[in-house]
Amino acid sequence: MKSSDDNAAMNEPRAVEARQAHGRAGTSPILVTGGTGTLGRLVVPRLRDAGCTVRVLSRRSREAGEGIEFVTGDLATGEGIDAAVEGAEIIVHCAGSSKGDEDKALNLVRAASRAGARHLVYISVVGADRIPVVSRVDRVMFGYFGSKLAAERAVADSGLPWTTLRATQFHDIVLLVAQQMAKLPVIPLPKGLRVQPVDAGEVADRLAELALGTPAGLAPDIAGPKVYDAAELLRGYLRATHRRRPIIPIVLPGKAARAMLGGANLAPDRAVGRRTWEEFLAERVSASSLRQSDHSSSLVPP
């Protein structure tokens, strides 16, 4: 398992290039939307460590930190977005949700165009262009992919220089799903579903590098190092957390489901990630056990 120091050392050449690129670009702040989310909170310190001033868009007011300022705005309504993009030549759009991504992207694009941004960077998902979301069933189960594709098109059609990076699902998201499913007495799981989770920190490294580089259009995908059968992955989580749950294979209807089962959500030729699911899970389970131990100790009277 690679340590954070190993990863930092491997990324140092990229960090140097990023600092040089930003030095050539000027000292205007870089706006990061979704800068407190799973990915954005990792992108922000990487940009700051590259010598950039970072502005984070948030729906709630927050206290500024060293090299980081917070602005309040709502991408869903457009409120506060003009002020947020003002003076920001580079915008990294990490804000996302299960629905409404297209409208949020359009509100950001309009404000960025008015402000004259010179580089709009967007994080999307592998399979956005290959998983058809056409029927009601498709939209209910896999509408996320259609929303991401619509947001991609809003960025590409903005008239602004742009870069879009598609990533497979983050380890963190897979863990969250596994935690929720493990609460069920019996776990229904689509038969034959495969996943290729990637480390969010590695995606953040690449996204920061792209943000400080020349607009690249659609960048090569980034995916995790291994493809897993979803049932195998879930069983690994259950073993690691000392749970027993029967897993029942189910068949999902719709074109989107067929595309998923056919591997449209995978990018085996872009397995450039290094941190495996097993490494991520071992670290998270260990950290969770340590927190529980500390909590139990605090309950013991002196």
Features:
single chain; 302 residues; alpha/beta; Rossmann fold; seven-stranded parallel β-sheet; two-stranded parallel ribbon; 10 helices; 11 strands; 45% helix; 15% strand; globular; disordered N terminus
Explain briefly what this protein structure is.
This protein has 302 residues and is α/β, with parallel strands linked by helices. The chain contains 10 helices and 11 strands. It starts with a helix and ends with a helix.
Task: Describe what this molecule looks like in 3D.
The protein has a domain at 4-169 and 199-225 and 266-274: NAD(P)-binding Rossmann-like Domain (Rossmann fold, 3-Layer(aba) Sandwich), CATH 3.40.50. It is an alpha/beta fold and 302 residues long. Strands 3-2-1-4-5-6-9 form a 7-stranded parallel sheet, with helices on both faces. It is globular and about 55 Å long. The protein has helices at 4-25, 40-49, 81-85, 101-115, 136-156, 171-181, 200-211, 230-240, 255-261, 277-298, and strands at residues 30-33, 54-58, 68-72, 90-93, 119-125, 162-167, 187-190, 194-195, 217-218, 228-229, 247-250. The model is unreliable at 1-16, 18-25 and 293-302 (pLDDT under 50). Helix 2 crosses helix 7 (200-211) and helix 8 (230-240) packs parallel to helix 10 (277-298). It has 10 helices and 11 strands.
Structural class: alpha/beta
What general outline do the C-alpha atoms trace?
globular
CATH homologous group name of the domain at 4-169 and 199-225 and 266-274: NAD(P)-binding Rossmann-like Domain
Write down the secondary-structure element order: HEHEEHEHEHEHEEHEEHEHH
Strand content: 5-15%
In total, how many beta strands?
A: 11
